[in-house]
Amino acid sequence: MDSASPPMAEIHRQLLLFGSEELRRAAASIQDPSERRRELSRIEAASTVLGEPAEDDIAFSHSGLCQTCLPHAKPASNDLIWERSSGRFHLMVSPGVIRGPDGRATRVGVPYGTRARLIMIFLQTEGVRDRTVSLGPSMSAWIRSLGLPVTGGPRGTIQAIREQSLRIARCEFTLQWTARSADGGDETIIRDQRLVSGLSLWHAQEEGRGARWQATVELTREFHEHLREHAVPLVRDAIAHLKDNSLGLDLYTLFAYRLQRLEQPLLLRWQALAAQVGSETGRTSHLAQRVKSVLPDVLAVYPDAKVEVMRHGLRLLPSKSPVPRTVVQGLRVIEGSAPRPTAGPDRRLGTSRLLKFIVVMPPA
């Protein structure tokens, strides 16, 4: 294990031994203000997730969306196609086109950053519970439900949510993977799909300007059933703690999907991790430093995660799910049948459509 990385779940052992107040007093003595704030936030988050989560504390993400990611930062050009890979599965996101203010067709770019991730997690979480997803009485209420403050201006959350919603609405996802054909050979399968059809929802203004707010999105029966069967349970408080760190969100959802399915330790090399959740630069040394920096925050909200930093990558060991299976099974909306952990998305389902969102999943 890398000497610079803290022991797995050390913060939780300290909490059990000394209590949160003692850890907060120790953290208050840290000289660097930013590191002091980060450590206090980490202690608070770790304290919150130590207990068994209640049913309302659970979020969900489809197993297929836990394996690859969107860009962390705004791509250099709105014309660029985004690519990520996980084993035999390859994701390509093509930017969509709209008519700009100058009357010319222009590409809006692919979705990126934490806001896009939070929107997707919200819709899947609510979609597991009911085909009709309520967005609340107003745009401001919906933004707050994402765990974000409501702020205006060019850098505010209102503008950011609108932009990411538009990018999600217009982009096209190409999913390509290799599967075994009936004669025993390899077969390349390609699917091109949009995640959003229709933009009236995403052009709604905040309250006070007289614009109509569409407060619900209805999932189709096929996607709703597939999502409930293949949803990966997450902890809402963990998402809230990581909401401002896109790499942290990606690592948390990847670990939540992968660790509980391992039967033996696995070395996930930096090159392979970069292909799944890496930055636009593709430099594994840069990714390794970022992972080492954010990993304590991820492990703080996933007490049972057994992850070690090695020289050539991350050593993943079989671990418990962040949400006990008994809690997931207790969800009444699942009608007595909890989402089952699977090795990958269902081979039988080629496409899954929502009224506003469309998702296509490959086999593992």
From TrEMBL:
Annotated Pfam families:
RepA_C
Stated name of the protein: Plasmid replication protein
